[in-house]
Design a protein that fits this description.
Distance between the termini: 79 Å
Shape: globular
Number of helices: 17
Number of strands: 27
Strand content: 15-25%
Helix content: 25-40%
CATH architecture of the largest domain: 3-Layer(aba) Sandwich
Structural class: alpha/beta
Number of domains: 2
């Protein structure tokens, strides 16, 4: 009996020792994983417990009479005082005249114009939720977004009106329609004129002041780019927006300067407001600083160049196609950049050679900053900071205030050491609440500890910052090796006869897949497919060589400059 007890106690102590070792091992693993999380070098943003619009207009007393918005086409202007007044008129009309309730969804299907801003922020002032619709959408695309968000009212213009009516019919939605049109123009029966509910009418400030929302309440529902399946509504809260303002105003990455006296930064709004980049960075980030925003209904090279030459532009936010245009177009002049302090590029990878081409064309030194963001991160994640030294223009910059990053092996799901390649995960107070009415997609994209899985492959260099190599689902597998289309596209664009290029993977009997390039040639220059293939082959490993080159007139892209590889694959098929 004593012997048996002795054996039992011996086993027990061995078991306790093993448990301690396991616990120590587990804690060591946690510490190691914690060491592999990249933290912003800047102090975390303090999110104020206040209304979003109160924060937006916090500094506005000093620039009330300055121009807030000017339409490049029509020259229509709103001063900051007028903008705030019309927003309040619209908010009052939504509740008092049109009968909308707190939490009801309002949709805007508008191009970039001053009215978009009145509608969007006026809806928030009324306690409603805003969803933004791409103005080039057709009825089926509209019906999908309408079915998801169920708006009670849609604001649009005459060009989009028929598509809106058809989209609502498909979705079996009877939302009221508001039309932005001239005060004397005829409008369809039953349609509400914008000017009657936004630019005319009384403001019930006493009532508006009673409207309270929580920080976690939904403010905006923009839609993701839909690179996989149908586009998904992204639930952006008031807390996300307040955090975004505080992060954007961190001195290390605050590009606008606060308006004072006669000084006012001038910013052309070429990025669509319906997209998170244009909505958060261009609008919210610059209205809060008193900038003059020049809106462009549609991107036109001639109009864009006119604005650059005429309006003393000091800040410019672009996507890669526009950056490439500035670096290569024959009509770009040094005087376009005479007042420029920063050009910021985001939404898709841009090669260093393309950034350097813009700097070279300007004949003066201003800062070229790249950044990374996503709809799901309220557009903010990394950026090249102000006055950075020894900039690598292939980098998307360093983690912004309050942002944490980690990189995960997409096969094993384990965090990889800093500097190694993996899928990038982001944790920040700007990370969305989730996908609107889509619990399955939310669970698939957000970890339990609040990291958003971006679907982007990349790595982080502690000295240079973030490098995005490609989307996981766009990687081409050649003999089991991964080939990044963005890498090949950057090389292709560096060829003197190439304006633009896109690469996709196509089936290959032996290799599994092989890279195929679609190339837009420069006018007047002659080059053969073989020359292009040899040019790339001389710069990459053998498994990355391009098997086929097709010359095309245009590369299909979405409104933010991302290449629509699905469309190219349809063309190939």
């Amino acid at each position: 009996m004593q012997n048996s007890a002795r054996i039992s106690f011996s086993k027990f102590f061995r078991h306790v020792k093993q448990l301690k070792q396991r616990k120590f091992s587990a804690s060591a693993s946690v510490r190691k994983n914690e060491e592999w999380i990249i933290h912003s070098p800047y102090k975390d943003a303090v999110i104020p417990n206040m209304r979003f619009l109160d924060r937006l207009w916090k500094e506005s007393k000093s620039f009330q009479n300055n121009v807030a918005l000017e339409c490049a086409e029509t020259k229509k202007q709103y001063t900051y005082n007028q903008l705030q007044h019309y927003m309040a008129v619209f908010a009052t009309s939504l509740r008092r005249k049109l009968g909308l309730q707190q939490g009801d969804v309002v949709a805007a299907m508008l191009p970039n114009n001053p009215e978009f801003v009145v509608v969007s922020f006026g809806a928030l002032q009324a306690g409603c939720v805003m969803t933004t619709i791409n103005p080039i959408y057709k009825e089926l695309e509209i019906s999908h977004q309408v079915s998801t968000t169920e708006p009670k009212l849609i604001v649009t213009n005459p060009e989009c009106y028929e598509a809106v009516v058809k989209g609502l019919a498909i979705a079996k939605n009877n939302a009221k329609i508001v039309l932005v049109d001239g005060p004397d123009a005829k409008i369809p029966e039953g349609v509400i004129r914008y000017s009657e509910i936004a630019e005319k009418g009384e403001v019930d400030y006493k009532f508006l002041d009673t409207i309270e929302v929580k920080l976690e309440d939904t403010a905006f529902i923009p839609f993701s780019s839909g690179t996989t399946g149908l586009p998904k509504g992204v639930d952006i809260s008031y807390k996300n927006l307040l955090a975004a303002i505080e992060i954007m105003q961190n001195k290390n990455h605050c590009f606008p300067q606060l308006a004072h006296g006669d000084f006012q930064d001038v910013v052309p709004c070429v990025l669509p407001f319906f997209h998170i980049y244009g909505l958060v960075v261009t609008l919210i980030g610059h209205l809060s600083m008193g900038c003059k925003l020049i809106t462009l209904n549609k991107f036109s090279t001639g109009l864009f160049f006119d604005v650059l030459s005429r309006d003393k532009v000091s800040l410019l936010y672009v996507v890669p196609p526009i950056a490439i245009l500035l670096g290569k177009h024959q009509d770009v002049k040094p005087e376009f950049f005479r007042n420029m302090r920063h050009i910021v590029c985001g939404a898709a990878p841009l090669a260093a050679t393309d950034a350097e081409a813009v700097l070279k064309r300007s004949e003066r030194h201003f800062e070229f900053n790249q950044g990374y963001g996503a709809t799901e991160t309220t557009s903010l994640t990394t950026t090249i900071p102000i006055r950075a030294k020894d900039v690598d223009y292939n980098s998307c910059g360093i983690a912004m205030s309050s942002v944490k990053l980690k990189f995960v092996d997409p096969q094993t799901g384990k965090t990889v050491p800093i500097g190694e390649s993996g899928e990038m995960y982001v944790q920040s107070p700007t990370v969305m609440r989730g996908y609107y009415k889509n619990e399955k997609a939310t669970k698939e994209s957000l970890t339990e500890d609040g990291f958003f899985k971006t679907g982007d492959m990349g790595y982080y260099d502690p000295k240079k910052g973030l490098f995005i190599t490609d989307r996981i689902k766009e990687l081409i597998k050649v003999k089991g090796m991964q080939v990044a289309p963005a890498e090949l596209e950057s090389i292709l664009r560096s060829h003197p006869a190439v304006v633009e290029a896109a690469v996709i993977g196509v089936p290959h009997d032996f290799n599994g897949e092989s890279p195929k390039a679609f190339v837009v040639k420069k006018n007047g220059l002659s080059v053969s497919p073989e020359e292009i293939q040899d040019y790339v082959a001389g710069k990459v490993a053998s498994f990355k060589k391009i098997e086929e080159v097709v010359f095309v007139e245009d590369i299909p892209k979405n409104m933010t400059g991302k290449i629509l590889r699905k469309e190219l694959k349809k063309m190939y098929a």
